[in-house]
Amino acid sequence: MKSILTLLLVSFFLSACHVGRYFYWNFADIRDHKKFASREIETGNKPFSFHKPDSYPDFFVKRINFKNKVVSFNEFLQKSKSVAFVVIHNDSVVFEHFTRGYDEKSIVPSFSVAKSFVSTLVGIALEEGKIKRLDEPITNYLKDLDSSKFGAITIEHLLNMRSGIKFNESYYNPFGNVAKAYYGTDLKKLCRKLKIKEKPDENFDYISINTQLLGFIVEEATGKKLDDYLEEKIWKPLGMEHQASWSIDSKKNQNVKAFAALNATVYDFAKLGRLFLNQGIWNGKQIVSKEWVNESLTNGAVKNGRQYSFQWWIFDKYDLYKGQQIGPNQQLMEFTQDGKIQEAVVTPNFGYAAQGILGQFVYFCPQKNVLIVRLGSYSPTVQWSNLFNQIAYRF
Asked: How far is residue 240's CA from residue 209's CA, in Å, rounded to a whole number?
């Protein structure tokens, strides 16, 4: 009797509302792709693989500061809950590390890394003429939104997180908007209930609903489901090696979670970075325009000392002084050899990344032709952007 009651309660929580699912599944984790229904994304017939040597060269990062201790780099990756960490230079893998039973074929949720894929699809739809202009009102495509309230918001406002839409992005609030979006069952219904907080373009406000609206705009403009458009324009042309999936709100509504939940392998994620390293060209074919790539890598809004443009994070590099070790906790200020603190030398716009909440990253550095992908669980003491920049700088 008790087991039957338990099953009934679980069924109720999973079906009744997003709050029940939040408490049952708790905070997002790297197994979330197994929890939600999804739409499959198929590969093409011309897979692309990064070059892998028979044996890897001796990686230059030997030891690293982590939680006030000096540990080996492999130990750092293990303790920072990284299930996959790969470094690619000039299309060749120079370092890879997998832990906790994961390997290059393991599927891992993207979380907000998906935002950069959606932005790329916007750029492709714009080049194809499906989307007319970035300064178009979003209500030209989203007819369910009141044009008197949302008509001042443009597609570009959504891309740069400057829409002025009221949305609670707190990931720890089961009653907040982002929990409704992630655990709810009807994303279009959620969008119809949106309200305005302020005029567009007044402030940078990173909210996932902006990307969800972009996804709906792409669908309306192209007449295709977002995952189908991704498969046609990115997954197959870029030679992705493994079938992917995109989690949906429910089997009934079939709306992909555009702001998150693209599920794929580490090297397939890396290929988006390679596309942008090569100015939107993939093996001689222009996939997304050079103009779009350049616009994406131009400073947008500023948040926490990092820039954001078209759903990409832009990282400045802070130089370390001679004799210092690469470490994840060094950023704005560095110690000189005499112990005095002085401001580090800044190299603007050194690295770029798609970034997810648990520390999912697709990082690339055009100056060094370096790609780094990190997948795993959240490790709050690591400043990944600084670590990636320092690794790339050594090439």
From this structure: 27
What are the distances in angstroms from CA 175 to CA 9, 15, 21, 54, 180? 20, 16, 11, 51, 7
**C-beta separation of 356 from 171 below 8 A:** no
Check whether 25 has a pLDDT greater than 60.
no
Q: Give 237-288 pLDDT, tens digit per residue.
A: 999 999 999 999 999 999 999 999 999 999 999 999 999 999 999 999 999 9
Q: Which 3 state secondary structure label does DSSP give 351?
A: strand
Percentages (nearest 5) of helix, strand, coil residues in the chain: 30, 25, 45
For residue 94, give both structure tokens.
């120079």
CA distances from 253 to 19, 37, 67, 142 (A): 19, 11, 45, 17
CATH number attached to the domain at 1-393 = 3.40.710.10
Q: In what order do the strands lie in the sheet with 306-309?
A: 92-98, 82-89, 370-376, 361-365, 346-355, 312-318, 306-309, 301-303
Q: Which two tokens stand for residue 63?
A: 């030891």
Beta strands in the chain (DSSP E): 38-41, 63-66, 69-72, 82-89, 92-98, 108-109, 165-166, 195-196, 244-247, 262-264, 281-282, 285-286, 301-303, 306-309, 312-318, 333-335, 341-343, 346-355, 361-365, 370-376
| Contact of 385 with 364, CB cutoff 8 Å | no
Q: What is the DSSP string of 295-328?
A: HHTS--EEETTEEEETTEEEEEEEPPPTTPPP-T
Secondary structure in 3-state letters for 11-62: HHHHHHCHHHHHHHHCCCCCCHHHCCCEEEECCCCCCCCCECCCCCCCCCCC
Cβ-in-10-Å burial (0-12, 13-18, 19+) of 49 comes to: exposed
- Give the pTM: 0.89
CA angle 147, 150, 152 (to 5 degrees): 95
Q: Where are the domains of the chain?
A: 1-393
